[in-house]
Design goal:
Blueprint lengths: L6 H22 L10 H20 L3 H5 L2 E5 L8 H12 L14 H6 L1 E5 L1
Antiparallel strand pairs: 1-2
Helix pairs in contact: 1-2, 2-4
Length: 120
């Protein structure tokens, strides 16, 4: 299994997921210009929920699907458990864990959750 997924694909998937969360909050908030000053917390909450739910149920978020990536267990390449995805999602929301990688191309969020992104 090829463990290295390019940083570009990872970043594009993350941006798509973030923009989708932003659009949802803007839609419920009356539009981009009328969003509350504290909307960033709502965007983060929507991002967290949509990422965790979609990756748990489908193995991929909206952004992952569009750039053809999938989250799997590192140990055997099987479907990840909901708790693994919860840990992964919490750590991604901390940002710093999602931008530091080891020699295998795995971020801290992937090592601590025993998951990895693969092409698929």
């Amino acid at each position: 299994m090829n463990l290295r997924v390019s940083m570009g694909r990872r970043f594009v998937a993350l941006v798509i997921d973030w923009l989708a969360s932003y659009a949802i909050v803007a839609g419920f908030g009356g539009g981009i210009g009328k969003m509350a000053p504290n909307a960033s917390l709502a965007i983060l909450a929507v991002f967290f929920a949509q990422y965790w739910i979609l990756v748990t149920l489908q193995g991929a978020s909206l952004g992952h699907r569009l750039v053809k990536l999938k989250v799997v267990r590192f140990s055997d390449g099987g479907q990840s458990w909901p708790l693994q995805i919860l840990v992964r999602t919490l750590l991604i929301c901390l940002v710093v864990t999602a931008i530091t990688f080891d020699e295998n191309g795995r971020g801290i969020h992937e090592r601590l959750s025993n998951t990895v992104l693969r092409k698929g």
